[in-house]
Amino acid sequence: MIQFLLNQELRSEHALDPNLTVLNYLRDHVGKPGTKEGCASGDCGACTVVVGELQTDDTGREHIRYRSLNSCLTFVSSLHGKQLISVEDLKHKGELHSVQKAMVECHGSQCGFCTPGFVMSLFALQKNSDAPDHHKAHEALAGNLCRCTGYRPILEAAEQSCCGKQPDQFDAREAETIARLKAIAPTDIGELNSGDKRCLVPLTVADLADLYDAYPQARLLAGGTDLALEVTQFHRTLPVMIYVGNVAEMKKIERFDDRLEIGAATALSDCYDALKAEYPDFGELLQRFASLQIRNQGTLGGNIGNASPIGDSPPLLIALGAQIVLCKGETRRTMALEDYFIDYRVTARQESEFIEKIILPRASAEQLFRAYKVSKRLDDDISAVCAAFNIRLENGVIADARVAFGGMAAIPKRANACETVLLNSPFNNATLERACAALAEDFTPLSDFRASKEYRLLGAQNLLRKYFIELQTPHIETRVTAYV
What are the FAD-binding PCMH-type domain coordinates in residue numbering (predicted)? Predict the structure, then answer.
C-alpha cells in the first residue's frame, strides 16, 4: 500500500495499476480534470502539478517544500508519503488563489488550455520565492508553453502574484499538513499491485538491493522522465518497477576535502547549488537542462543510467574524472564513469546492479573547466552537441587534458586523439588547430533531425576554438551557450 495526501485528503492505494500516471489518476480516478494532457512527454507543461514534501532545513526547522512536476511523466507510486496539489485545490472558500487572480487581471489566458499548468508553476514559484526576479520567473515558466496569449502578460502575472504575496490557505494549514505528512511517513516497503503489475517502494539501499536481486527484470524508477515515455509514448507495459525516490541514502550530497559524493537518486534541481559552487559552468548547464519541472523529477543517476548518447551531464562528469559506485547485494565496486558506457544504451552494469552514487573531485584553481551546449532552443531542449573541456596549464604548456562530448557518438566519450595532441603542447593557436583536426579522428557523428554530421563535427571544433579564445580573453567569456 502507498499513502499520500490529495491536498488535505488522505489517499491509501494498493491495487492501482503501477503504470498509472498522476495525470490520469487525477482525471480518471478522482474527478479532477483541470490538469490537462498536451504532449504526454514533459514538453508543454499543461499537466503541471505541485508536490509537497516534508523537509528539515539546516536549523532543524520543519517545512514543506513545494515542487512543480509534469504529472504526465509521474507514476502514482512516487507520491508515497507526499502531498499532491492540483489546480482545483487552489480556490478556497469561493475565492480564487492570488496566482489565479493575477492570471485573470493581467490577461494571461485566452483559450485556457495551458492555463492550469501555468497557474501551478506560478504557485510553486510563489511558494519558493519572496520576490522572484526576472530570471527566476523565466526559469519557473520555461517548461510551460502557450500558443495564443504570448508570455508578457504571464510574466506580469508572475510579478504581481509573487511580489508582496499574502499568506494563503496552505500557509495557514502548514503545521497541520506537516503533522499529517509525518503521520504517513513511510516506515516499510510500499507497494502498488494490480495483479499483473507491481511497483515496490524501498526505503533503504539494503532493501533496494534485496528487491532488485529478487526481481532482476524490474525497471528502476527514479524521476521517470525517461522511463515513463515507454508508457505514455510507446504504449508499453512495465510489469515490475522499483521506485528509488524514497531511499534517503541515495538523495544525499556529501562534501569531503577532496570530493563530492552525490546520491544517484538526487534530483537535478537539488544538485544545482553544490555543482555550481564547484564548477560554475556545470551549474549553468543544469539551468538549461530541460525544464524546471523535469529537473525537479529527473536525477543525476538516471541521466547516467539511461545511457543516452545525448545526456547532458555525462560529458561534463567524464571531463571532470568522475566515478560511480555500483551496488549489487552487499557488494560495491567503483569505476570511472567513462568506462561505464560501452555501446549505444549498453553499459557495464551487471544484472541486479544499480548506481548508488556519483563521486567527482572538488575543483582546484589549476583546472580550466568549461562546458557548452548546442541546441535549437536556449531553454527546454535536447543537445545536438554537448562539450566539456578540462585542462591544466604549467608555464604555458598543457600538462593535463580531458575532453569529452555528447551527441558525437553512440555513447558520451572522451576525444582521445584530441587529448593526445593537446597533452604536453604549448597553449597556442597552432596546437588548437591540430587538436581541432584530431576531432575528426575521434568522432564520425550521425545526421538526424537535430543536426547533420557535418554540423556536429564543425560545431565540436568551433566549441574547442571558443574554449581557447575564452581562456585567452576571459573578459569576453560567454559560458554555456546555444548556437541556433
Answer: 192-365
Phi-psi region of 21 (alpha: psi -120 to 50; beta: other; left: phi over 0): beta
Q: Tell me how far CA of residue 186 lies from CA of 61, 206, 237, 247, in angstroms.
A: 20, 16, 27, 11
Q: pLDDT tens, 50-71?
A: 999 999 888 889 999 999 999 9
pLDDT (tens digit per residue) in 391-435: 999 999 999 999 999 999 999 999 999 999 999 999 999 999 999
Residue burial 86-100, b: 16+ Cβ < 10 Å; e: rest: bbebbeeeeeebbbb
Give the lowest-confidence range in 79-93, 264-278, 367-381: 367-381
- Is the entire prediction scored with pTM above 0.85? yes
Do residues 421 and 464 make contact, with C-beta atoms less than 8 angstroms apart? no
CA angle 134, 140, 145 (to 5 degrees): 105
Q: 64: helix, coil or strand?
A: strand
What are the φ and ψ backbone dihedral angles of 26, each rounded to 5 degrees? -65, -45
Handedness of CA 63, 290, 141, 110 (dihedral sign): negative
Q: What share of the chain is helix, strand, coil (3-state, %, to 5)?
A: 35, 25, 40
Nearest in space to 339 (alpha carbons), one of 360, 355, 318, 319: 318
- Taken in order of first residue, the domains within the chain and their CATH numbers are 2-184 (3.10.20.30), 367-472 (3.30.390.50)
Quick check: helix, strand or coil at residue 303? helix
Tell me whether residue 193 is exposed, middle or buried, using C-beta atoms within 10 angstroms of its C-beta: 0 to 12, 13 to 18, 19 or more. middle
Q: How many CA atoms lie within 13 A of 443 on its CB side?
A: 33
Distance between terminal CA atoms of the chain?
48
Residue 140 CA to residue 162 CA, distance in Å, equals 12
DSSP 8-state code for residue 350: P
How many whole angstroms separate alpha carbon 251 and alpha carbon 244? 9
C-alpha cell at 257: 576535502
Residues 178 and 54: their CA atoms lie apart, in Å, by 7
358, exposed or middle or buried, with CB in 10 Å at 0-12, 13-18, 19+?
A: buried
Please compute, for residue 176, the number of CA atoms within 13 A of its CA located in the half-sphere on the CB side. 10
Q: State how far the Cα of 152 lies from the Cα of 409, in Å rounded to an integer.
A: 40
Cβ atoms of residues 358 and 322 within 8 Å? yes
User: Side chain identity at 448, as an amino acid letter?
Assistant: D
